[in-house]
Design goal:
661 residues; alpha+beta; Glycosyltransferase; 2 domains; 8-stranded antiparallel β-sheet; 5-stranded antiparallel β-sheet
């Protein structure tokens, strides 16, 4: 976000001045103590170590200058959009100008509590947000006032909503699920995202809104203060990560949107300082929670809301310091950014596990931001590759997303993309191996996951693997169905797609894996030997005691030249209770031929799974998909192949081969 921000000088001096002002005004002792304690709390964090020197001299005068320059810069970029791009935004605004705003009824909000349906209310709310954004961007392009009356309608309705919080997230209020409690303020992902969009509207269209009525902008700012800024400062939410070791994408996603909000609208210097200080402390908790290799346990499709949002937060902070604040020496943060690059298979296909989906277009602007932060040409190249796949990332459906892309359009459009794939990569902290035998997206890619069954958005998938060929998933991870009341509840693991029995894993003595950090892989190893790569792990500790398993070592030897994987399941049981089975999930319907499992691939090649037929019994079950999210990912059916191990041996070493030709 170079050239977007100026100002933020002498941060420490400004904090001292703020403290002195508060003391003189006899403000809250608790607030004074919080500010005085900042050096202690910042002692371990990356942001705390860097912010002080870079932000020496911060004041509202500087932030107002930044806003004026940013506004002028953005307006210039909009003016310089191509005629075709401008026409697209105006056409979308014209459609939104006759949009009938749907009511957001209490009964629809309550559907999550009564039926577990979160999508009905969210869909209606998203329709409102989308129409408002389209109108605003159309007005910013055209500047004729044609869309202002409808903008006022949409803005007023948004400000009149009882809550910006999703019905699925209001469960965090003290009274639990139901309607929002007006005496219990909460900030969730949706509320923070709404606030960021509204903050852009306030900065860019305040003068235009004032011509309709000066009370609109006053109300907008008041609602941002009462729903976002004051609650953020005065309350402590779980996602701030001050009192818990459970830290996920909520932390950085919300913090980034709150940062945008205060930078764009906050005029109270004391409040701006206080929110910024708390925000940096919370964001440090997010950064500190990551391993040095940057692995994201939520998976690649969550990168955009985790590592990708971290890049946005750092970009705003760097620009706010007039680029004097640099993170170029922070290898861990660069590794967090590069995770999305290392987990890319081809096109829109990514390695997926847990709740991640296998198909996405990673947000090009967020990837490009990392390229700028670290002068990383591979990240810039990958950003341009994603942008070439789908330019809808730059659209009128989200104002803050629009302005995230706006400064980088020329570079993203003109970069000469190099599709040379990344080399194989192993994330030791996550036990994730991505082993490539491909060339420019063609060939075989193996991905195996170790870790434990207590990661964020967990599925019971320790030791599972995925196999891709020519960019297409062959042996797959199903991913996640449409979120509902059950998805994040005590009954999460009654959902079929979260269970180990629906992953490429053994079912041992008829027993699947259990959830929790204690259910984990051990002895995870990865090594390279000339043209072969090896991945192995013991998954016995991922199963409960009822599985009666002492050891289950899965070993994969990947011969990249021969497109072959030799697999060994080396196990020992405490007792044989019933036949164990190996499970393989695919989108492709396999068939059994002479003891082989045969998978006809779309590229006229074939994948074979070869077993010793005397040792196994094979059966195939078709799974009809009713969930719309899964149908969009995989089509109408998936196939679960069970390879039952014959015999009653407690100790066995079963070998089989996967080969494509």
């Amino acid at each position: 976000m170079d050239r977007l921000m100026i100002g933020f000088h002498q941060f420490l001096f400004g904090c001292v001045r703020t403290i002195r002002t508060i003391v003189n005004k006899q403000c809250s002792c608790l607030f004074i103590i919080f500010l005085l304690c900042l050096p202690a709390v910042y002692a371990q964090g990356v942001l705390s170590q860097k912010i002080g020197g870079a932000f020496s001299g911060f004041s509202i005068a500087h932030i107002k200058a930044w806003r004026a320059e940013s506004k002028a810069h953005w307006e210039m970029l909009i003016k310089n959009l191509s005629a075709e791009q401008q026409a697209q935004f105006i056409t979308a605004a014209e459609k939104a100008n006759v949009f009938v705003w749907p009511p957001l009824l209490a009964g629809v909000y309550l559907e999550f509590q009564s039926q577990g349906n979160r999508t009905h209310y969210e869909r209606l709310m998203d329709e409102r947000r989308k129409a408002l954004c389209q109108l605003v961007l159309g007005e910013l392009v055209e500047r004729k006032g044609r869309f202002l009356p409808q903008i006022v309608n949409g803005l007023w309705l948004t400000l009149e909503e009882s809550s910006w919080v999703s019905p699925a997230h209001i469960v965090s209020q003290r009274s639990g699920a139901g309607l929002p409690d007006p005496n219990d303020r909460y900030i969730d992902l949706v509320a923070a995202r709404t606030a960021a969009d509204l903050s852009f509207i306030y900065l860019l269209l305040k003068a235009d809104l004032d011509r309709t009525s000066p009370h609109i902008a006053v109300k907008l700012k008041k609602e941002l203060n009462s729903r976002i800024i004051r609650p953020y400062l005065e309350d402590s939410y779980w996602w701030m990560s001050f009192d818990t070791d459970f830290i996920n994408n909520w932390n950085i996603w919300i913090n980034t949107n709150v940062l945008k909000t205060i930078l764009l609208v906050e005029d109270d210097e004391q409040q701006l300082h206080a929110v910024l200080a708390k925000l940096l402390r919370s964001a440090d908790r997010f950064i500190d929670s990551y391993p040095e290799d940057g692995a994201i346990d939520e998976g690649a499709s969550y990168w955009s809301h985790a590592g990708g949002e971290l890049g946005q937060l750092l970009s705003w902070l760097a620009a706010a310091s007039s680029e004097r604040l640099s993170f170029a020496d922070q290898k861990k943060i660069q590794n967090i950014g590069r995770y999305i690059l290392h987990t890319h298979i081809d096109g829109q296909v990514f390695v997926n596990f847990a709740d991640a989906s296998h198909r996405q277009v990673a947000p090009a602007a967020k990837i490009w931001s990392y390229g700028l932060l670290f002068d990383d040409s591979r990240m810039k190249n990958f950003a341009a590759q994603m942008y070439a796949l789908d330019r809808n990332g730059f659209n009128g459906n989200s104002i803050h997303t629009f302005f995230m892309y706006l400064p980088y359009l020329d570079e993203l459009s003109t970069w000469k993309v190099d599709k040379t794939p990344e080399p194989s990569f192993f994330y030791e902290s996550l036990g994730l191996a991505v082993i490539r035998a491909d060339h420019n997206g063609k060939g075989m890619v193996f991905a195996g996951i170790g870790s434990h069954n207590g990661v964020s958005h967990n599925h019971n998938d320790v030791g599972s693997f995925m196999l891709y060929h020519d960019g297409l998933p062959v042996l797959i991870d199903v991913g996640v169905a449409t979120y509902n009341k059950q998805t994040f509840s005590a009954s999460r693991y009654s959902l079929w797609h979260t269970q180990s029995q629906w992953h490429n894993l053994p079912v041992i003595n008829g027993v699947g894996q259990r959830d929790g950090k204690q259910f984990r892989a051990t002895d995870v190893q990865y090594r390279v030997d000339q043209d072969k790569e090896f991945f192995s792990l013991d998954i016995s500790k991922a199963y409960p005691d009822s599985a009666k398993v002492k050891r289950w070592q899965r070993s994969f030897e990947i011969d990249k030249d021969k497109k072959k994987i030799d697999v060994v399941e080396d196990f020992e049981l405490d007792a044989w209770l019933k036949p164990s089975e190996l499970v393989f999930i695919s989108q492709i319907r396999p068939r059994v031929e002479q003891g082989f499992l045969v998978y006809p691939l779309p590229n006229e090649q074939t994948m074979y799974l070869r077993f010793d037929r005397k040792k196994v019994r094979i059966s195939i079950v078709e799974k009809n998909l009713a969930d719309e999210r899964l149908r969009q990912q995989w089509g109408d059916q998936l196939y679960r192949t069970s390879v039952e191990l014959l015999g009653t041996n407690k100790k066995e070493k079963l070998s089989y081969t996967i080969q494509i030709n």
